[in-house]
């Protein structure tokens, strides 16, 4: 077993994710397989849908289970908020609702958290308990508080942690509320994504504390940000260059594509005229541009739909605005169709012009300031003319 732990630490060190002897010692101390007694591998089926195959020592065999558990991979550990589907060796379908994030990302975030001996840490998203165990190994379990929304996951994590001698403060609840009994915290780290920084985290943090989280927008573009809390209760910091994404917090809802797609689709079918577009349908596949679009156009959702040989990239907004950019396999110029109170693709083209003029800013050129009254993303400097309010 120690050979597997050392091999994982070596791999994370070689990739640059593991950068300090303290965290290396933690990685070599915490056996990941304890937190992965069963998980799923994912692969597309013949119809293009993702299927999940259970991996357990009983189904897959001890050697394969251990080998996979120590790979630098993310493994799905729950489908559809249920703990079933483990008894059959065949593939199943469902929506992932919990996972064990690849160790490289876990360790990179822990390094980026910049902990020190004696730091009190609030972790949002206990999940399997692996990252919680690493924190306990590095700092001591008396300094670690971890919040998990799912009571079943929290109980399982508690059992696994206790089997290794770790007994941190484990809380079942909405991570957006933090955990007031443990205040003040010197570090806050979230392993699920939010549309904004929950104000409770800033309120419960000590002056000088660091908050590390991912912010996700309506188009699914993520920003990985590190904030420092000031004496006046504000928090500010820059987005980091690394791409880090997590499942969204279960407590954050919003409009669904389905409720907006039908009226938009029917309006287009009724005969909306189209026009040429210089932008291709893959433009929103560029993360830094999608990030900019969702800052300028909060609340806009996207969906792809192939029909009659045309690939449609739909944008939808709760106010009834929509656009559909169609690209064609025969090489014809893309055509855009729009309806509702706003012309969404016109706005995308305006954002693209700004983005190009601003030298296509990468995520690390942005920052975030959190005050009691608002949260604002800015470009380059906090007092820059280009800034956008984050909406919960």
From TrEMBL:
Entry's localization field: Cytoplasm
Keywords, in A-Z order: Cytoplasm, Methyltransferase, S-adenosyl-L-methionine, Transferase
SUPFAM superfamilies linked to this entry: S-adenosyl-L-methionine-dependent methyltransferases
InterPro entries in the record: Methyltr_grasp (IPR026448), PCMT (IPR000682), SAM-dependent_MTases_sf (IPR029063)
EC id: 2.1.1.77
GO biological-process terms attached to the record: methylation
CDD domains for this protein: AdoMet_MTases (cd02440)
UniProt cross-references to Gene3D superfamilies, sorted A to Z: Vaccinia Virus protein VP39
Gene Ontology molecular function, alphabetical: protein-L-isoaspartate (D-aspartate) O-methyltransferase activity
Gene Ontology cellular-component terms listed: cytoplasm
Tree of life domain: Bacteria
Uppermost EC category: transferase
Protein family (similarity comment): Belongs to the methyltransferase superfamily. L-isoaspartyl/D-aspartyl protein methyltransferase family.
Name of the protein this chain belongs to: Protein-L-isoaspartate O-methyltransferase
